[in-house]
């Protein structure tokens, strides 16, 4: 894929799909962990942007490469571990102690490092990386190739919704005194 518009559209749709996939995963996990559904995320919509950034990072690292499952799994494990630790530490350090996740309080938290990252999470993200590389990336790439410009308007609407939701959750609500939800 050499068309920059199609490539941008593909990467945005991967970001959105991974953000929604992450939200669904967390809703299911916390249902198991806490015995009830807990709304995850800062925004109103069903997405968690950190999963979008993680998925986008893996897509960019592997784009156009033919890899066997082991390197994809290892890239996913190491990349997600670095992303989780860095984002968790930065949020805690620079946002007044904000903890959007804390593995200290969850089940199956072996290999826990400061509550920011644990072995269970990065191993699951390694499996998700395989799903992304072998399933979602080819599916979204084929969708964009087949539908082309017909996807532009729906993707633009989705992008505006996502940006508005993130803007409200991370900028407007904290500035209005509502703080961040923990």
Describe this structure in words.
The chain has helices at 4-34, 49-62, 69-94, 119-147, 152-175. The longest helix has 31 residues, at 4-34. Helix 1 (4-34) crosses helix 2, helix 2 (49-62) crosses helix 3 (69-94) and helix 3 packs across helix 4 (119-147). It has 182 residues and is mainly alpha-helical. The chain has one domain (4-83, 125-175). The mean pLDDT is 90. The N and C termini lie far apart (41 Å).
Order of helices and strands: HHHHH
Structural class by sheet pairing and helices: mainly alpha
Q: What is the count of distinct domains?
A: 1
Outline the low-pLDDT stretches: none
* Number of separate helices: 5
Mean pLDDT: 90
Beta-strand share of residues: under 5%
Shape from CA axes? globular
| Biggest sheet details | none
Task: Let me know the number of strands.
Answer: 0
Cα-atom radius of gyration: 17 Å
Specify the helix fraction band.
Answer: 55-70%
Distance between the termini: 41 Å
Question: Which features would summarize this protein structure in a list?
Answer:
182 residues; mainly alpha; 0% strand
Write the layout of secondary structure elements.
Elements: H1 4-34, H2 49-62, H3 69-94, H4 119-147, H5 152-175
Quick summary of this structure?
With 182 residues, this protein is an all-alpha fold. The chain has helices spanning 4-34, 49-62, 69-94, 119-147, 152-175. The mean pLDDT is 90.
């Amino acid at each position: 894929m050499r068309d920059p518009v199609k490539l941008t559209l593909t990467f945005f749709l991967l970001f959105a799909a991974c953000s929604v996939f992450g939200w669904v995963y967390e809703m299911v996990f916390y249902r198991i962990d806490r015995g009830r559904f807990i709304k995850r995320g800062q925004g109103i919509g069903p997405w968690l942007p950190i999963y979008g950034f993680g998925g986008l990072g893996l897509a960019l690292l592997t784009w156009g490469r033919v890899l066997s499952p082991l390197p994809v799994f290892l890239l996913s494990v190491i990349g997600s571990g670095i992303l989780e630790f860095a984002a968790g530490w930065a949020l805690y350090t620079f946002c007044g102690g904000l903890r959007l996740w804390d593995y200290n309080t969850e089940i199956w938290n072996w290999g826990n490092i400061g509550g920011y990252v644990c072995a269970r999470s990065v191993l699951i993200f390694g499996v998700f990386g395989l799903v992304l590389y072998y399933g979602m990336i080819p599916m979204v790439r084929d969708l964009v190739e087949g539908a082309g410009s017909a996807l532009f308007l729906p993707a633009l609407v989705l992008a505006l919704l996502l940006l508005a939701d993130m803007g409200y959750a991370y900028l407007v609500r904290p500035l209005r005194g509502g703080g961040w939800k923990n």
